[in-house]
Amino acid sequence: MRYLGVGSDGTLLQKRKAYEILRDELKFRPTLEQQHHPLSEADDNPWNQFYADDHLVREINTDLDRLYPQGQETYFQERKDYMDMLRNVLFVWCKQHPTLAYRQGMHDLVAVILYACVNPSHMLDENDDRVEFLEHDTYILFERIMVWMKPLYAIQTISPAPTPDDVPLPTADGSDADLFGPPPPR
Known about the structure:
Number of strands: 0
Helix content: 40-55%
Largest sheet: none
Number of helices: 6
Distance between the termini: 75 Å
Strand content: under 5%
Radius of gyration: 25 Å
Shape: extended
Low-confidence stretches: none
Structural class: mainly alpha
């Protein structure tokens, strides 16, 4: 984590706590005092955000369902806790970056980070605080890496190709005058 500027100055615990607070704030919790019906289309209905978030989660789940890394095909699929961590990390990051939101392939990147964090060579045991903060650390690393990766996921605006109506045709006498503007004065 220190290679990415995290943890070297005591900020790791602060970043872990900040992620936990953010994740918990983003969870939708309907309460009894909310007087909005889930099907109401009122602009101030908090259920509107729930449905928007649900759409994002379904989009993330679509990619997570296809997560079968070569050589470790069942690594994530057999661990519901890992899948939940991946979903949470992607959801929180996307909510923090709404202009980019979720793009296909982000799940592969965050999965590599999680895999590296739980790699058996680290010999994580249950007393290691990295187990407790596995999701937090995965988010912190993903967020740092996405600083450099974000441009690769941005949607570029491309000018539309010219239509046949936009392309000038040669004139009746066979010259290409229309291609280059009006003919010079004689």
